[in-house]
Amino acid sequence: MQEAVRTVLRETAKGTGRITILTGAGISAESGIPTFRGPEGYWTVGSQVYQPQEMATFWMFTQQPDEVWKWYLYRMGICRAAEPNPGHHALVAMEQRFGDRFTLITQNVDGLHLRAGNSLERTYQIHGNVNFMRCSLECSNAVYPIPPAVQPKAKDDQLTDHDRELLRCPLCGARTRPHVLLFDESYDEYHYRWHSSIKAASETVLLIVVGTAGATNLPNRVAHEVHRQGGIIVDVNIETNPFAQLAESGGRGFFVQQPSASALPTMLAAMADD
After folding, report:
1. If we measure between CA atoms, which residue out of 150, 5, 172 comes closest to residue 77?
2. From CA 244, how far away is CA 264, in angstroms rounded?
3. What is the dihedral of CA 110, 115, 116, 120, to 10 degrees?
4. Which of 96, 108, 166, 254 is the one with CA 20 to 30 A from 12?
5. Any idea what the Cα angle at residue 148 is, between residues 147 and 149, rounded to 5°?
6. Angle of the 217-228 helix axis to the 194-202 helix axis, nearest 10
7. Dihedral (CA of 246, 247, 248, 250) sign
């Protein structure tokens, strides 16, 4: 890692400004979780093959609720079988070191950051969490864990009548839906921390972007707000991307072309240097 990056990390750690981490699918890919935007996410209903951008919509849920639930329970199983990697654990150590100076904004719905030990208070799950559900009719804002009796599904498994009963709103009895931001939905504050993320970005002196190319709106807003405010951006990715270009465009940021499982522990060590 460049000495200039180490110096920035070391000096920022000694200061008092907010340090924000923005993570995407890349950090979880190193734990074996696919992005689900490629072949791993394709889903067959009868003779029709759907891509993830077609499955993960509220419109599809209204048409094929069982199929959408089966797809998400399949994803849930893959996520639960994965374990946090050294990149996740480095971010836990960063939170422990910096406390209220630290914010973690994640696009990942796998829950690995929380399982590794990051706090819910400082972890903004801006796309939700595949382990949770909420009322599809929005009778309340409540979010519930998916009942343990609802097991992950293989691609050929069907929902059972018992599954359908368990996947109901405890308040009104309507079907629940996965607690994830679907492609035809918008960010909000209560479920997806829109305003909190923008506020954190406006106060950030150092943004570390990990494993994302910025395919969705809020992560882009966060990065551009940090850039606009004069904060430093360090992008960690195995290939160049718009965040890397944004980081380097102001002459103050950096692109670290390394896997996050090795880069983040190295960055943590630099921040711990006295």
Report:
1. 150
2. 16
3. 90
4. 108
5. 90
6. 20
7. positive
Three-state DSSP class for residue 200: helix
Strand order across the beta sheet in which 232-236 lies: 123-125, 102-106, 18-23, 204-210, 232-236, 254-256
Give this prediction's pTM.
Answer: 0.95
Q: State residue 68 phi and psi, 5-degree precision.
A: -65, -45
Over its length of 274 residues, how does the chain's per-residue pLDDT go in tens digits?
799 999 999 999 999 999 999 999 999 999 999 877 666 667 777 778 888 888 999 999 999 999 999 999 999 999 999 999 999 999 999 999 999 999 999 999 999 999 999 999 999 999 999 999 999 999 999 999 999 999 999 988 999 999 999 999 999 999 999 999 999 999 999 999 999 999 999 999 999 999 998 878 999 999 999 999 999 999 999 999 999 999 999 788 999 999 999 999 999 999 987 6
Helix, strand, coil distribution of the chain in percent, nearest 5: 45, 20, 35
Residues 211, 27 contacting (CB under 8 angstroms): yes
The SS3 assignment for 82 reads coil
Q: Which of 88, 89, 113, 127 is catalytic?
A: 127
CA dist 200 and 79 (Å) reads: 28
Mark whether 127 is an active-site residue.
Answer: yes
At 116, list the tokens.
Answer: 């590794």
Structure tokens belonging to residue 194 = 């829109």
Please answer whether residues 230 and 203 qualify as being in contact, where contact means their C-beta atoms are separated by less than 8 angstroms.
Answer: no
Residue tagged 């190193």 (tokens): 30
